[in-house]
Amino acid sequence: MGRNSRCSKRQHLIIAFAAMLGLLVGGIAKTEAASYTFTKISDTADDFSSFSGPPAVNDSGLVAFSARLDSGPSGIFTGDGTSPRTIADTTGPFSFLSPLPSLSDSGIVAFRAFLKAGGHTIVRTDGSTPTTIATTNPIAQPGRAFRFLGNPSVNDDGTVAFHGLDATGSGIFTSDTTTPIAHRPGVSPSFDDNLSVADGGAVAFVAFDATGRGIFRSDGTMIAHTSGPLFKVLGVPSLNSEGAVAFWAMLDAGGDGIFVSNGTMPTTIADSTGPFNSFGNSASINDKGVVAFWASLDDGRHGIFTGPDPGAHKVIAAGDTLDGPTVTFLTFGPEGLNNSGAVAFVATLADGTRAVYRADPAPSDVRVSLDIKPGGNPNMINLKSQGTVPIAILTTDDFDATTVNPTTVTLAGAHVKLKKNGMPMAAYEDVNGDGRADLVLHVSTQYLQLDESSMVAVLAGQTYDGTAITGSDTVRIVP
After folding, report:
1. 453 band by pLDDT with thresholds 50, 70 and 90
2. pLDDT tens digits, residue range 198-227?
3. Cα radius of gyration (the chain)
4. Fold agreement between 13-361 and 366-478
5. Does the domain formed by 366-478 have CATH 1.10.12?
6. Which of the 8 DSSP states describes residue 118?
7. Do residues 219 and 182 make contact, with C-beta atoms less than 8 angstroms apart?
8. What strands lie across the sheet with 426-429, from one edge to the other?
């Protein structure tokens, strides 16, 4: 992965100020604790001798990665846990392939490659017929030759964005038009190689001007700049379809962190005032606003996280086990997170092997609509009662209450009361008059784990197929 900042830990008032004023911008969300299942995409115990650079993952769970084969050639490959597919390798016209492939949801991969015939090129392909997007070889692509090309980014429409030096200067270009998004005359590069293209064609990129370094969006919005009061150094941008950009930054006050902005005051995702010591120079944001990043902890460990709590927001960390061996190092990059929350990374293991993995978040509990004491408002409960409390799990457009297994349901820890024949007190009724069957249950009042201060009761249970459900409703405890 990219370099990792190693700054000493201090208390940074300016970060706290930014966090306090940070606005929830489009596409930013908080993340709760999640458990993950891990799928091995490939490892050095199979056909590969090494992996280089961070992998990319798309919404179908396909992972693109750079690797060297045991037989010698290196290449770009894709896989989902079955046999990897070769996208391009060095057995043909390419002498070297960049270890930073970009991947679309349709399986199109864009990458930079050096040619055996001289120069380098940007290619877009699904593994069949490659398309040359740009090249430094004027014979290969007359009329649009470049002197230098940076690593590309591809979106789901197949649009490829890249930094290039052409005959007149430095600019940010796309495959859709010969007109650059941004351009500055002169020999010296005015733009960074690191950029991100979102669905719809918007591009986030890094540019240099007389006052410093900034992250910009192609609509002209300045996301962050080193000339302001916050940031000293800015890292690789990651842009989602909502226009939010996630990025690493070193702060003027010292320390570093992961931030998100749509052009307003940046929101702090995590910084080195807390349990984190330092961060990788890139982050990945998805269209739901979830941000994943590499970070080291104060205790010396490191891992991949999705928020400021290294316990609740951990995806994987050094010291964890994967298929037996212990993880010793992790590599993660700006396209390592998809819209389902899956994370792609390279793991170095204690037994000496390296492997590409995809971490998929376990399905969260399904939220159901709960009505305690249907028809009652407020929902008054006398805990001294020896009777039952009726509750209704409502059928909605998104959930069928008749799929709930009554024997699994609890309300505030109390189970559904059983009849003399051992069957739960349950019935299907249309309690809210919408023409759909709801599930009405009766729980034993004396077993409710509530007290005089309780204002909410939480339901838990499962459907017949084992899907976990949860719901809640307000209560008022009376003498």
Report:
1. confident
2. 999 999 999 998 899 999 999 999 999 999
3. 27
4. no
5. no
6. S
7. no
8. 369-372, 388-394, 438-444, 426-429
Torsion from C-alpha of 65, 67, 69, 75, nearest 10 degrees? 70
C-beta separation of 161 from 152 below 8 A:
yes
| Residue 232: partners with Cβ closer than 8 Å, 6 or more residues away | 226, 249, 250, 251, 252
At 271-326, the pLDDT tens digits run 999 899 999 999 999 998 999 999 999 999 999 999 998 988 999 999 999 999 99
| Token pair in block for residue 103 | 């991947």
Determine the 3-state secondary structure of 407 from DSSP: helix
Alpha-carbon gap, residue 113 to 163, rounded angstroms: 14
The CATH homologous superfamily for domain 13-361 is Peptidase/esterase 'gauge' domain (2.130.10.150)
User: In whole angstroms, what is the distance from residue 112 CA to residue 135 CA?
Assistant: 9
Task: Look up tokens 């969006």; give the residue.
Answer: 217
Give the start-to-end residue ranges of the domains of the chain: 13-361, 366-478
pLDDT tens digits for range 466-479: 889 999 988 889 87
432: nearest Cα among 444, 440, 424: 440
Distances (CA, A) of 275 to 32, 337, 393, 394: 17, 23, 41, 42
Closest CA to 135 of 162, 109, 169: 162
Q: Is the pTM of this model over 0.90?
A: no
Helix/strand/coil for 403: helix
The pLDDT tens digits of the residues spanning 362-383 come to 877 788 999 999 987 788 999 9
| Structure confidence by residue, pLDDT tens digits, 30-72 | 333 468 999 999 999 888 999 999 999 999 999 999 999 998 9
